[in-house]
Write a structure and sequence with these properties.
By secondary structure, the chain is an alpha/beta fold. The chain contains 17 helices and 22 strands. Strands 7-6-17-18-19-16-20 form a 7-stranded mixed beta sheet.
Amino acid sequence: MGEDLPLDDPYKEDQPRNVAILGAGPAGLAVGHELSKNGVHVDVMDRNPYVGGLCVTIQDAGYKFDIGGHRWFTKNEDLNNWFRRLMEGEIVMVDRISRVFHQGKFFNYPIEFGDVFRKSSPLTIIQAGFSFLAVSIRQAIAPKKVNNIKDAYTVQFGKKLYSMFFEQYTEKVWGLPCDQISADWANQRTKGLSIWSLVANQVLKPQKKAVSLIEQFMYPREGYVRIPERMAEDITNEGGDVHLNSNVNRIIYHGPNDFEVFFGEDGRSVKADTIVSTIPLGVLGQIIEPKCDPSVVEAAKALEFRDLITVNLRLKRKQVTNDTWLYVQDRDILFGRIHEPKNWSKAMVPDDEHTSLVLECFCTRGDHIWSMDDDAVAERCVDDLVEKLKFIDRSEVVGWQIVRTVQAYPVYDLDYQNKIKKVMEFLETMKGVFVVGRGGSFRYNNADHSIEMGLMLGRRLLGDDLDHMEVNTEQEYHEIKEGDEIKRTHYTFDEKAEKKRRKRLESIVD
């Protein structure tokens, strides 16, 4: 535990002094990074033997691969500048090339009007045009309320394109029919993307107008885990503590801003005036004492997550494709998404004669995919790559590694908001508890969203008038950037403030 520090101007008298952060993923470390840089002691606890959570990079026989293939892209240029400062000297630029595999054909993604036109039959084009026209007329005359993801995608693209590019993949990811998944998923991921925006982008792009689909992103040369590792390094350098192999199993609320957190198998504990949780929201509601009403426990347990099996397939081959991602629609193919780490950074493979493919198999613990043993999963993936996608030859396979990840994706069922509300109403009775990140807020964030939420929560705890829960609520497509406007500006680098902070910390040490 860190000692209480005198809090002088410009620091608020009511800002926290000792903060317990549950989870060493991108969101939790971002909170800790912002707080520790401003003289607040933090204890970060994580059940894993490594930092990063889902943003971990696995090393395997000279190969490296990320769980999920995370990129760095944000529309907020101030956040980009923060990232460049943090990762100075470690960034590579990656061309964004994504495709969708559907019934034996490869289509560009995001969807391009001309690409679909060239690769589809005249009947398909006619069906797509008429289905979109029909839904547009219906919505103009008698708008239908959009309740689920099937409704949302159909309104945006028409029934035909929805069935071609969204239906099967979405159901593979979530394990639910699209009419049982909340429309909030589409609002977060593809709001503002439609046939009209795709046509506008294609027409206006040569004139370099405001609308542009993202064509490049930044990436840490040695893998995405370097981002959380760098934040953890800075936290410890500022006197904070990062506890690994330390699962949080109990939190006692003694009163406003007075907590004791128990973690690890040996029953260690720390006292804190503030709790920041990135662990699954449903779990947090069950480990805080005094215990909540049984109805809250029921709501907490009902917040479901989708799990993931990741296969890293090592190959004696220079390159398979130039894709950064490939989305696989077909239900009879085991995996739902592919990325080739070498296409992101050459440091991800042992030499230029080899490459690897990372295959994501979306599943739920106990289902038929999760119940397969590791070799069976890998062998089935090889079969699909050889026989259905025709990407590789069996003789090129050098080996594989399997990683199983639980609670990877929050499931947006039709009642998820009511469940969240029930748990949050209970947590709000305890002054000093904050949630952040994908699991903590039960929100499907990209890694940059989680980091931005964390930084904003850090600033909020330091006294800024901010709402970190605003992140990832914009009603516009994530892949479209309009102009160079800055969305949020809370972490610009202030050289004078940094010198003042350093001087203050040096005086405390002396």
